[in-house]
Amino acid sequence: GRQTMKFKAAIFDLDGTLLNSMDVWKQIDISFLQKRGLPVPADYVTEICSRSFAEAAQYTLDLFKLSEKVEDMVKEWEEMAVYEYAHNVELMPHTLEYILKLKDMGVKLAVATGLPEKLYLPCLENNGVLELFDVCCSTDEVKRGKEYPDIFAFAAQKLDVCPEQCLVFDDVLPAVRSAKQSGMLVCGVYDKYSAHHRTEMEQIADGYLIDFKDAPLPDCEG
Fold first, then answer.
1. Which of 210, 4, 207 has the alpha carbon at shortest distance from 107?
2. What's the predicted TM-score (pTM) here?
């Protein structure tokens, strides 16, 4: 059965939460390393998924002791990603019905993503959902990545809803942790790349979803 929670706004992560994009990233990351003749470490994809492009590039530089420039790496990743997001990345199952249901119930909707605007805008547009969101925020607009509460506080502020009335959906542990730190309700969302953190996420979060079929609805009393 579906649980209800007290919230007036829902804040969604994109990669691995609303968007079925994690395999795309895996492919991009693997081709990026293969072009350089580098092996793909077991935890590489997981390690870079909660980082911004620049942070991911720095991590990759340090890891493989490359002599490349961060900005050149970022540019290469972005070109590969822009194409994929604009054409091939789709919504996760049941997410559209859920978003429409919340919208119907008067819940404010926001996107809080580590993706830059040039990736998420064409993708949301291509999937026909861009206009459903009241607010879209990227970690590009705040000082720090999702392992800090900055983006969640920023989203609440833009929505004009206090943090306690926001419900966040995210699939990675650092983001679930920081959303809780910002005083919000949080639902962890399953994706295979963060599945090994499931137990920890379930301990921290207010709920945990395998998919959006049974995602919580607002408790409308009072």
1. 4
2. 0.85
